[in-house]
Amino acid sequence: MESQEDRNPAPDLDALLMACLSNNTEAIKAAEAALKRMTGSPALIPQLLLRATNSHSPEVRQLSAVLLRKAVSKHWTKLTDMDRLHMQCVLLDQLVSEPHHSVRRSLGDLVGVVARFAVAKGQWPGLLEFLGRCSASTDSGHREVALALLGSLAEHVAGHLAEHISSLNQVVAAGLKDTAVEVRRAAVRVMEPLAALVADRGSAEVEAFHGLVAALLEVASSAYSSRSDDETLVQCLQLLVELCESSAPLLGKHLPAVVGLAMTVGTDNRAELPTREAALEVLHWVARFKPKQLGRNKDLVRQVVSALCTMAGEAAPPDLDPDDEGTLPPAKLAAQALDAVALYLPSQTIFPGVLSFANEAMSSQQGPHREAALTCLAVICEGCAEPLRKRLKELIPLLLAGLRDPDAAVRGAAAFALGMAAEYLQPDVVDYYKEVLPLLFPLMTEGNADVCERTCYALDTFCEALEGSEIVPYLEQLVSGLGAVLTVTGPAVQELALSALASVVAAARKDFEPYLAPILPVLHHFLSCTSPAMIPCRCRATETMGLLFEGLGGDCAQLRSLAPAVADFGLQVVVRASK
Fold it and tell me: Domain Importin N-terminal: where (predicted)?
């Protein structure tokens, strides 16, 4: 009688692997499903091993190695001793003969998984000896294999490497000084799992790791000086970010050098933007995770602040796509880094340098410099609130001058700075509302979307802190200006304008009643919007209506006409939330 297996012959493994590598979505899904069923049996392991080591296609070899990792994790204990030994020998042979980096890396990861089972039971005594031979080889490919393998072992069997840390450090140190760039990159990669291993050890191991950090900085400096090896430089910078996060003092005495490198690369206008961003990320992380150690070096902090303030005035490269949200211009990168530095480091070290820069830059003939002055003041409002609050008499004139500036970008920066000041420098800053509000009103309707958006933010934060009697003289200008913004701008600005209107309503309470007529039709429009893009505006309009009911009372006939629209939206939200 014909068996079930005869009626359903085993799928062709080679065909399935090729299907996974095709561009046909349906074929990929079908092949993945078939392979998933096949990996339920240890019988697939020898077939995958054969293809990982003998296929003519590097893509097939790599995919087979990846699939083997999953299969070995499931079925290692079901393999015979001979099959295990065969796999160990074949994998090490293939590691040193494999010509493609991507395949070697996948094979190294596979060796790490096998080691997780074998090393713990003393079933792979020759593994570290193999690593040592490769690291001393005259073939740079073999030296790279040694480091890739070390990284995989540090990830999978870290506990069994602890007694060998000293010799492993020597392997990595030699790799960082290797003449072959691929070997140096492999050494940088292995430092992250090695750092995790060292962090759990004693001070002697941490001290020894500091030597690797010094060598790492040399690799990074050399890559930076070459102007042609951003890949290695970014790799080093990303590793430094990881080292910053460790609770162990892995950077040690080299922290000033780390900050110096990050500052130099990050503020270099000749470097590529992604590279500069990676460097400034290091500054951010050092400030966040090592604030005491960095804060003690006051001169270095002042240099960082000065460099970031200068960078904040740097023009965007001409080839930068303004619609590319993934790539920020230098000025924004600098502002983000300065914000982080101000948040985590002592304000008395940050504030004087920024204020000095702002005073000088505001007298510059170049608009970007004046814009930078105001942006830098804005981003330190949260971190340096206390000293700024004490120097408002010096700060406010700079911001008011920015609102009067002929350059729209400077006016926008001034409005943003005033919004930040109103948010973080309460209650003192509100005393200046009589000087601030009249200068903000014209900016709402000047036709520049960016300036309008920032002005609405400033109005929102200022009006939120005002009392009824303080805001009443400005209600007509506020209502007419915000009403105009709500009819001519896009959803992003409209949401901010509605938020500002809500703050005005909350402050005015009953005094807002004379201005209901022009505003209610606008609110009704937003309450009736059904487009997903308009939901944030609809929420803000609902908030504003709620504040109107609270301030004027439910007896107001004009308000009652909008009650059904508000209730309808509320019910829709409840229904969505319950699904």
Answer: 31-97
